[in-house]
Amino acid sequence: MKLPKTTRKYCKYCKNYTTQKIAEVKGKERGALKHGSIQRARKRGRGQGFGNKGKWGSKPPISKFKRTGAKVSKKTNLKYICQTCKKTTVQNKGFRTKRLVIEQ
Ligand SMILES: [Zn+2]
C-alpha cells in the first residue's frame, strides 16, 4: 500500500488540523514478546499478577513447521510528526497490509 509523505490530521497538542509527516515506527513489534523474553522477565520479577497484562502471557514454543492459513500481511505501526509543534503521535489502530511504501 502506498501512503503520502505528509497528511493533514488533527493534532491534540495544537488543537487544530495541521500538516503531519508520516513515518514508520522502527523497532520490535508491538506487544509481542518471545518465549525466552517472558521467561527472563519472570525471573526479574516482571509480568507477574492476574491475567497476561497484554503481553506477558505464556506461549507455546515456536514450531518448526509453518502452519497453513497463517496471515501474510502485517499490521502497520505509524507515527505522525506535527510540522507545527514537532510532537509525535502514534496511530491507535494499525491496518493490515502486505507491503507499506511511504512515497517520497
Ligand atoms: Zn501540533
Structure characterization notes:
It is a single chain. This protein has about 100 residues and is mainly beta. It has a single domain (about 1-45, about 75-100), classed as Nuclear Transport Factor 2, Chain: A (Roll). It contains one helix and eight strands, in the order E-E-E-H-E-E-E-E-E. It has one helix at about 35-45, and strands spanning about 1-5, 5-10, 15-25, 75, 80, 90, 95, 100. The strands form three sheets. The protein has a four-stranded antiparallel sheet, with no helix packed on it. Strands 1-8 form a two-stranded parallel ribbon. The protein has a two-stranded antiparallel sheet with strand order 4-7. It is flat. The mean pLDDT is about 85. Zinc ion binds near residues 14, 82, 84, 85 and 87.
